[in-house]
Design brief:
Layout: E1 2-3, E2 9-12, E3 58-61, E4 63-65, E5 75-77, H1 78-90, E6 93-95, H2 98-102, E7 113-120, H3 140-150, E8 159-162, H4 178-187, E9 191-194, H5 208-225, E10 233-235, H6 246-249, E11 250-253, E12 256-259, E13 262-268, E14 284-286, H7 296-305, E15 319-323, H8 332-337, E16 341-345, E17 350-351
């Protein structure tokens, strides 16, 4: 097929992107920082028509195991997790941090799509160290490191929503490496998020003081191991919100304050990006693993069959690019708040190839 090589582009300069290194001590590794105001990069449609209002898969994993005969959302075979990552790579997805997603700084090459990888509960199958204190290849983090080694353009990005083992202050079920694992994750480009202190059911029935104590307690414990690290994201256990939903955003207990930029739910589909008017920062959906309806495998197949719904990058992390017909669905206010440029364009027309001679 032959593509027409011209397109009409309208750009609105709403600001410029700035990424800050937050706090002292341990910090989050994010996208490229810029010291000066930027201009949008030239729009190259040779890689396809960008759609930066399309949906983004946010994956939700729990325990990953090498044991045979295990399957399902909460205990998933490591081999199938590895297969998920390879499938994502082949379909043109590239990992980004949750922080970059929520702030709208989605940095993947033109024509490709972002994916956010999340893990809940701080289980050993997610981050496992061998007897020498090195990351094991037989855990989720080891698989992600290997993906980056074999595919350098596959960034080491994922977020781990941690909570300690019951009745302890141990993360990832290896007492001797608890702090070392958290530090290793942050040093290698991964994020740490809040998953409450005890992972208890019934939060919707709790009083405000108990809710705040549970969330702030987790923030305090992470801070004990990672001084200065900005814990500003939360995944609520079982996807259950308290009655007073404002407490998910911010609060303080026992001298520890927290303020979150987003909250993640449990399940059920892909997420709209922050540039969309319908984006809800404190109710972001996720997908659990498997191939059943509304699970990761099912959704990846769906998005390949309905590519018009999929987020496709313009290759410029500082600009939101959408087809002119979709501009009405963009949140100009949020794009401006995130210090991004906004532009619209007329998608390239596609001419059908002439039939081959019989």
């Amino acid at each position: 097929m032959n593509r027409l090589k011209t397109a009409s582009i309208a750009t609105t300069c709403l600001g410029f992107a700035v990424l800050l290194i937050l706090g002292c001590g341990h910090h989050r590794i994010s996208g490229s920082a810029h010291a000066e105001p930027l201009k949008p990069l030239p729009l190259d449609l040779s890689k396809g028509n960008p759609n930066e209002l399309g949906v983004v898969p946010i994956l939700e994993y729990h325990e990953l195991t090498v044991a045979k005969g295990t399957h399902g959302g909460y205990k998933f075979p490591l081999a199938k997790f590895r297969a998920d990552m390879e499938r994502l790579y082949k379909l043109g997805y590239r990992p980004i941090s949750l922080h970059d997603f929520v702030t709208g700084h989605i940095d993947v090459p033109a024509g490709l799509s972002p994916v956010v990888i999340t893990f809940d509960d701080a289980l050993r199958g997610q981050v496992d160290f061998d007897q020498q204190g090195n990351i094991s290849p037989n855990c989720a983090a080891g698989v992600l490191v290997d993906m980056h080694r074999r595919h350098p353009e596959w960034a080491q990005r994922a977020i781990f929503f941690v909570l300690p083992m019951k009745g302890s202050e141990v993360f990832f079920y290896q007492k001797e490496y608890s702090q070392q694992k958290l530090k290793w994750l942050v040093d290698n480009g991964f994020e740490i998020g809040n998953h409450t202190l005890h992972h208890l059911p019934g939060m919707r029935h709790w009083g405000d003081a108990r809710v705040v104590s549970e969330i702030a307690g987790a923030t305090a414990l992470i801070g004990k191991y990672l001084p200065g690290y900005p814990v500003d994201t939360i995944a609520l256990p079982f996807g259950v919100f308290p009655r007073n939903t404002k407490l998910v955003i911010s609060g303080a207990a026992n001298g520890v304050a927290y303020k979150h930029i987003c909250a993640l739910k449990a399940g059920a589909g892909p997420a709209l990006p922050p540039s969309s008017k319908k984006f809800q920062a404190y109710a972001i959906p996720r997908m659990i693993p498997g191939n059943g309806q509304f699970e990761i495998g099912w959704w990846l197949t769906y998005l390949e069959r309905h590519k018009a719904e999929k987020y496709v990058s313009d290759g410029d992390a500082n600009t939101v690019t959408v087809a002119a017909t979709q501009a009405k669905y963009a949140s100009i206010e949020r794009i401006k708040k995130n210090k991004l440029f906004f532009r619209t364009y007329q998608p390239l027309l596609v001419k059908a190839a002439p039939p081959k001679a019989g």
